[in-house]
Amino acid sequence: MRFNSDEELLNKLSAELEILDQHYADVAPPSLLELEQLIAAEAIRRVKRQRRELLIFSIVALLLLSVVLSILNSAPVLFWGLQALFPLAALGSLGVARIRLRREDAEE
């Protein structure tokens, strides 16, 4: 849609803004009591969610701890082997990454 002058554009925009004002004129802000109830309900919901997340975290932590302790009890050699393997793998991957970075810097 093309307008021949700025005046036409301004009139059209003003008319559209009037329509918006009329459309939203009957919207009233919530009362203070409603806002307080909304905030209280949100606080209760947040506390319940935090408790549920803490419960899930605790259950998962206990499950992992029981698995680790059962492995330690039933196969201590396997447990200590895994305890040695993971740090060595992490250190090895860091060493490989550092060597690659040095090679890339040397090529530049």
TrEMBL record:
<feature type="transmembrane region" description="Helical">
    <location>
        <begin position="78"/>
        <end position="97"/>
    </location>
</feature>
<dbReference type="Pfam" id="PF17280">
    <property type="entry name" value="DUF5345"/>
</dbReference>
<keyword id="KW-1133">Transmembrane helix</keyword>
<keyword id="KW-0812">Transmembrane</keyword>
<keyword id="KW-0472">Membrane</keyword>
<feature type="transmembrane region" description="Helical">
    <location>
        <begin position="54"/>
        <end position="72"/>
    </location>
</feature>
<dbReference type="InterPro" id="IPR035238">
    <property type="entry name" value="DUF5345"/>
</dbReference>
<protein>
    <submittedName>
        <fullName>Uncharacterized protein</fullName>
    </submittedName>
</protein>
